[in-house]
Structure formats: C-alpha cells, structure tokens
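Exercise 7.
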Amino acid sequence: MTSPVSLPSAETVLKTGKTFARDLLERVLSTFLQAFVGVVVVTTPLDASMWYAAGVGGVGAVLAFGKGLLARLSDVKNSASLAKGV
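Solution. The predicted structure, written as tokens, is:
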C-alpha cells in the first residue's frame, strides 16, 4: 500500500504565490530600469550599432549583478530580491 500524499496547506500555497508575485514584479521592474539606464548610458552619446547594443546588455548585466549583491546585505541572505520576506 502506498503512503498518502502530503500536500501543503492552502495558506502556504497562497503565501508562496504572493511571495512569488512580489519577487517577479520587482525583478521585471528592476530589469526594465536597468536596461533603460544601459540604453541611455551607452547609445545616447554614440551611434548605436550591434556592438553598442551588446554593451547595453553588458551594462544591464552589471547593474543586475550589483542589485543582487546589494540585496545580499538585506535581512534575507538567501535571496537576490530587495522585497521584504522574499
């Protein structure tokens, strides 16, 4: 006979969903802002080309890395999110 399946409570599922939504929203907004800053910094003073577009990606990646390191200083050490409780 097989053992019964143990499912999480509805409260846990809702809390997890809410946490995921907050984390996802933060990451989407921060990625947009990082890409926007990267585009402005790299392509505005230059004639945009494929190499400048690659530079924009690099600037966005560096900013995302910096945000992750900054988030590490918050009270939750195992998350790259700046949102509380994630």
